[in-house]
Amino acid sequence: MATRKSNTPPKIETNLGSILATVAGPSTTPPPKASKATAPVLPDLVNKVSASAELAAAVVWNENKPAEHGEASYDPPPGQTAEPGTPLATASTTSESMASGKVGAGKPPAGHNPTVGSLDRVRVDSGGQVLTTNQGVAIADNQNSLKAGLRGPTAMEDFILREKITHFDHERIPERVVHARGSAAHGYFECYKPLTGLTKAAPFKEAGKRTPVFVRFSTVAGERGSADTVRDVRGFAVKFYTDEGNWDLVGNNIPVFFIQDAMKFPDLVHAVKPEPHHAMPQASSAHDTFWDFVSLMPESTHMLMWQMSDRAIPRSYRMMQGFGVHTFRLINEAGESVFCKFHWNPVAGTHSLDWDEAVKIAGADADFHRRDLWEAIEAGAFPEWELGLQIFTEDQADNFDFDVLDATKLIPEELVPITPVGKMVLNRNPDNFFAETEQVAFCTAHIVPGIDFSNDPLLQGRIHSYLDTQISRLGGANFHEIPINAPVNQVHNN
Ligand code: HEM
């Protein structure tokens, strides 16, 4: 690194106005012209300020403003743009080119954001490495606290002890308010043929196109440590990391739901969760508050029939169907829209336990489904599903004698057959259960161009609920930056 020969500060040109100030305030002089000064830092600063001023002057007002209102806003013209004369104009600092191991070479690749992309960037192989603190400082021992003398007391200044214990004290996050118990795996979705006539959604653009997915299966009512084989609805949540952003298809293994309006969801869940006075029973719907609720909600009868059938005690996560449940919309490049229902069909077939088996397994191996999924993938028997779509138009919907926006109804396959459009394969177990399975945040609001909501009032409530609950479950609003939740394509918005 170059060193300065004397302690004399570089000569600063006069008349540079407020450009050297980092506090806000009125500018006393107009921005300077590009500098020919030779002092070590100043030319860059002066050039940056003048280039920024030029850039701002290139778009003084928004000529398209009138097109943002009324009818004209349906087809707005492309926005105005101006190229900076020098990269300095948009650099975060004039010293951006100073290189170090921490800040890098000073030439960030244009458009690249390393916080997104594959999980490889956050995986660590500690084999053969020296033990360190969280600050990267090598230490010989993290098993013995620092004592005053042989028998103590322990010194408050032992920051290694305090770092380790503080990390431990805060390492748990609250369990999900529903679907707390679950297991997940990575894989891919492969499209059979382009669906561009129906949708512009990225996963359906080309035959053979593979989109990475992370899929979490779950029970609904039980707590995080409850048994896998209880009688319950199973969650079937798929996060597609498409090249146009994340799309979450957050479904269940039953094609309908208990209620029609999101307003009743807290009541449904309070009814099915353990009773408030003695907190029993665990992971079970066979109790008074639940029967009280469903007896007062005739619309829940259809779902109840499914829930009390073998469907609610699946043999394996690999042998479950999955359903988007709601009616969604697909939209193509021309802006044309059709209604759509999503169906996952397991290649291994749909199989259930019988009740006696389910009860016995719950006692013998509470992790039965978790173990089954993990071991199948470790053994190379990758579970597969076929994705099928039920596609219908608004005119068709108007002529059905049921409401397609009612999640307690299914659309009979006799009326609208299912078209297979692709397959999903789960071929990799997570590296870290907490970082991936526990911290993943599915959200029905995560849609991509080509997929849209319908007016189903249950879906509309869900669009609010997932983000809202994750703000407390994942400790704030920034959980999209947790690696498992980040998209694989680039994020540019700050
Ligand atoms: C208004 C109705 C509903 C509301 C308000 C609601 C709300 C929630 C909430 C708060 C969570 C916990 C999310 C988290 O902490 O990350 C959750 C999880 C989940 N919900 Fe819903 N839900 C509703 C209906 C449904 C329906 C109809 C389905 C199926 C189609 C469904 C499927 C799931 C699944 C699969 C999960 C677990 C996601 C995971 O694996 O992390 N929910 N729901």
Written description of the protein model:
A hairpin with a 2-residue loop joins strand 3 (234-242) and strand 4. Mean pLDDT is 92; it is low at 1-7 and 9-15. Strands 1, 2, 3, 4, 5, 6, 7, 8, 9 and 10 form a ten-stranded antiparallel sheet that branches. The chain has helices at residues 42-58, 159-169, 265-272, 288-295, 301-307, 355-364, 368-378, 394-399, 434-438, 457-473; strands at 182-191, 210-219, 234-242, 245-252, 322-323, 328-331, 337-346, 384-392, 419-428, 451-452. By secondary structure, the chain is α+β, with helices and mostly antiparallel strands. It contains ten helices and ten strands. It folds into two domains: 37-67 and 80-108, no CATH class; 182-485, Catalase HpII,  Chain A, domain 1. Protoporphyrin IX containing FE binds at residues 176-179, 182, 216, 218, 235, 237, 250-252, 257, 262, 265, 325, 407, 440-442, 458, 461-462, 465-466, 469-470, 473.
Write the layout of secondary structure elements.
Elements: H1 42-58, H2 159-169, E1 182-191, E2 210-219, E3 234-242, E4 245-252, H3 265-272, H4 288-295, H5 301-307, E5 322-323, E6 328-331, E7 337-346, H6 355-364, H7 368-378, E8 384-392, H8 394-399, E9 419-428, H9 434-438, E10 451-452, H10 457-473
Antiparallel strand pairs: 1-2, 1-9, 2-3, 3-4, 5-7, 6-7, 6-10, 7-8, 8-9
Helix pairs in contact: 3-4
This protein binds protoporphyrin IX containing FE.
Largest β sheet strand count, sense and barrel closure:
10 strands, antiparallel
Number of helices: 10
C-alpha-based Rg, rounded: 29 Å
Please report the first level of CATH classification, the CATH class of the largest domain: Mainly Beta
Total beta strands: 10
Heterogens: protoporphyrin IX containing FE
Order of helices and strands: HHEEEEHHHEEEHHEHEHEH
Shape: globular
Please state roughly what percent of the residues sit in beta strands, choosing from under 5%, 5-15%, 15-25%, 25-35%, 35-45% or over 45%: 5-15%
Distance between the termini: 32 Å
Q: How many domains comprise the coordinates? A: 2
Structural class of the secondary elements?
alpha+beta
Question: Could you estimate the helical fraction of the residues in percent?
Answer: 10-25%
CATH superfamily of the largest domain: Catalase core domain
Low-confidence stretches: 1-7, 9-15
CATH overall fold name of the largest domain: Catalase HpII,  Chain A, domain 1
Instruction: Please state the average pLDDT score.
Output: 92
